[in-house]
Design goal:
Helix content is about 20%, strand content about 20%. It has helices at about 15-25, 60-65, 95-105, 130-140, 150, 180-190, 310-320, 360-370; strands spanning about 50, 75-80, 85-90, 115, 155-160, 200-205, 210-215, 225-235, 235-240, 250-255, 260, 270-275, 320-330. The longest helix is centred in the middle third of the chain and has 13 residues, at about 180-190. The chain is globular and about 50 Å long. Bound molecules: 2-oxoglutaric acid and manganese (II) ion (MN).
């Protein structure tokens, strides 16, 4: 297309990943997205195959209680180049994504969970992030200062990931949210991993100009267990590479409701999020978020209805944002974590080495770099 940058020729040269990352991160001219796999459409691509999940592994009632369609209706795919990787195109029942989105914005950022704001603000300042932000988000005109919710970049759950040492430790732990544990166990069971224990979670909050640098998630002690990823809000481009930076990655869209499972030999592959797509002017929110729950949940259900008042804030926020939850089991049978070693130096707010930030939020980046001394890896 005129004015668009054509896909770079990928050689098996050095750092093919970085090259593609920069390609999709670029805004001017906008990149050509024609090579990005779109699982929401009919997939006719030799890189992709449809995969059948074991329907008997998860009952319809349990799936429905977690806000998921029956497994037999899930559209699941694998990638020829990345064995063990599973992509499930939005298996959520109409209306149920709203519950998980509200949890990400209202419940999970609360103490005792840890977030980026804690790194340079007192615990009273970072208490009640939702309550401190909603009024301003509701009435937001363009020039209002950013609310705490809009400054949120990450939240950690369960074993809290230490961005500086890239480790988990036995004594930096808070109880993992039971609802997300059940959702994770439900999805893992459907993908052939019964008994999955959600022990650590990283929630990433992306504004339209954010990206996440190239990395491998290897801090968990047992890599035979899968890593689950849930995406909500605006669409991202996700890059999945190989075990080496020079392996050329595969690009795919991650849309609201999509799930990804990195298991088997895909568990330790390089990956990144180079860009968030701007919402089309005619449709500020993905249409799957317009729907409300079709049936009123009963009290035993995992997911509950989201009030119109709360949804008004979530939907406003998501017009320019994406939220991703990754859930990990850290320990295999019989494994234990060491306790924290005393840290030399400051604790950084940024995801050292891979939490990439916007060029547009340059001021913030500068501030972060000054605070943490960390560089982004892209
Ligand atoms: O946002 C995403 O899709 C990826 C997040 C991720 O890779 C991580 O948290 O380790
Ligand atoms: Mn990751």
């Amino acid at each position: 297309m005129l004015g668009k940058m054509a896909a770079p020729v990928l050689e098996h040269g050095e750092d093919a990943f970085r090259k593609l990352f920069r390609f999709y991160k670029r805004r001017n001219p906008p990149p050509d997205f024609s090579q990005v796999i779109d699982f929401s459409k009919r997939v006719d691509d030799e890189r992709v195959f449809a995969t059948e999940l074991d329907h008997s592994s998860l009952g319809e009632v349990a799936a429905c209680s977690a806000g998921l369609r029956p497994v037999k209706e899930w559209r699941a795919f694998g990638l020829q180049a990345h064995p063990g990787f599973i992509f499930i195109s939005n298996p959520f029942l109409p209306g149920s994504q709203r519950y998980w989105i509200k949890q990400c914005l209202k419940a999970y950022p609360q103490k005792p969970n840890v977030c980026n704001l804690d790194m340079h603000m007192s615990s009273t300042e970072t208490e009640n992030i939702w309550e401190k932000s909603v009024e301003s988000i509701r009435k937001k005109g363009k020039r209002e200062p950013r609310t705490l919710l809009e400054k949120l970049r990450w939240v950690t759950l369960g074993y809290h990931y230490n961005w500086d040492t890239k480790t988990y430790s036995a004594d930096h732990y808070s109880p993992f949210p039971p609802d997300l544990h059940t959702l994770s166990q439900t999805v893992a069971a459907a993908c052939g991993f019964p008994g999955f224990q959600a022990e650590a979670g990283i929630l990433n909050y992306y504004r339209s100009d954010s990206s996440l640098g190239i990395h491998v998630d290897e801090s968990e002690l047992d890599h035979t267990l899968p890593l689950l990823s849930f995406s909500f809000g605006q669409t991202a481009v996700f890059l999945l590479g190989g075990t080496k930076r020079q392996d050329p990655p595969t690009a795919m869209f991650m849309r609201s409701g999509d799930l990804m499972v990195m298991s088997g030999s895909s568990r330790l592959l390089y990956h990144a999020v180079p860009c968030i797509l701007p919402a089309p002017a005619c449709q500020p929110l993905p249409s799957c978020l317009d729907q409300r729950l079709e049936k009123q949940p009963v009290s035993e259900d995992l997911i509950q209805d989201v009030s119109e008042e709360d949804w008004a804030v979530c939907s406003r926020y998501l017009q320019t944002s994406r939220v991703n939850m990754t859930v990990r089991q850290v320990l295999g049978p019989g494994q234990t974590l060491p306790t924290t070693q005393p840290l030399v130096g400051a604790v950084s707010e940024s995801r050292s080495g891979y939490h990439d930030e916007s060029e547009e939020a340059a001021q913030n980046v500068k501030k972060r770099k000054n605070e943490s001394g960390s560089e982004v890896d892209c």
